[in-house]
Amino acid sequence: MPGTPEAEAVIRVRDLAARFDGRTIFEHVTFDVRRGEVFVILGGSGCGKSTLLKHMIGLYAPAEGSIEILGVRMDGLDGAARVALLRRIGVMWQSGALFGSSTLAENIGVPLEEHTDLPAEARDMVARVKLGLVGLADAAGRLPAEISGGMAKRAGIARAMALDPPILFLDEPSAGLDPITSAGLDALIRQLARDLGTTFVVVTHELQSILAIGDRCIMLDKEAKGMIAEGDPRRLRDESRNPVVRAFFRREVLA
């Protein structure tokens, strides 16, 4: 079953370190992401969550260690091989990163135009299907300025799904959303993971979202410069003996 211990690991991170200008952000980070699960990278501000995500999608090169995605190691990958691997992942950035002068359908069509030979009519049809999957079937012709922040996040997910990647990376999907809109986005992520079998890697520090969507998680800590916990977020909340982990999940201030 997807997300179970028996499921295949589609991402393998081994002894990863990130350093910039001689400063260590994190080191000795090792974990697997299993096919079909919603995997959450969590932690407080400045712990390196987004930095880890950028390493995983190939924007940053590791100072040490390795990252393997779908059986292919990221380090040293370039040219056509790199493009082929990147086509198999989708990314939604915190802002949605939509092109303001293009309609939602046109935004979703950008990856299709860049990476496929589909004619314009077919690209538009695919875009409308993807928008339908995220509940925006009636908004295909609207501009980003004409939609809400929650709709922009959904459109960003639709664009990340344009090429049918088996893995989606979401950077702070709930950031800036009210609780009701955030809960709706959480439900969408769970539904897509269940219905499509997509693997999600989600970076967030929003506690409600972590508990609502996460099958498993890792927790990074700024002071430890690395991982301090891994597992089911609900079990970490209820059973962890690490005072930093307990404080995070219980919203307590450490003495």
Write the layout of secondary structure elements.
Blueprint: E1 9-20, E2 23-34, E3 38-43, H1 49-56, E4 64-69, E5 72-73, H2 79-86, E6 89-92, H3 104-115, H4 120-133, H5 149-160, E7 167-171, H6 179-196, E8 199-203, H7 207-213, E9 216-221, E10 226-231, H8 233-239, H9 243-250
Parallel strand pairs: 3-8, 3-9, 6-7, 7-8
Antiparallel strand pairs: 1-2, 1-4, 4-5, 9-10
Description:
There is one protein chain. This protein is of the alpha/beta class. It has a domain at 9-88 and 165-250: P-loop containing nucleotide triphosphate hydrolases (Rossmann fold, 3-Layer(aba) Sandwich). 37% of the residues lie in helices and 25% in strands. It is built from 9 helices and 10 strands. The protein has helices spanning 49-56, 79-86, 104-115, 120-133, 149-160, 179-196, 207-213, 233-239, 243-250, and strands spanning 9-20, 23-34, 38-43, 64-69, 72-73, 89-92, 167-171, 199-203, 216-221, 226-231. The chain has a 6-stranded mixed β-sheet with strand order 6-7-8-3-9-10, sandwiched between helices. Helix 4 (120-133) packs across helix 5 (149-160), helix 6 runs parallel beside helix 7 and helix 8 (233-239) packs across helix 9. The protein is globular.
Entry summary:
This protein is of the alpha/beta class. Helix content is 37%, strand content 25%. It has a domain at 9-88 and 165-250: Rossmann fold (3-Layer(aba) Sandwich), CATH 3.40.50.300.
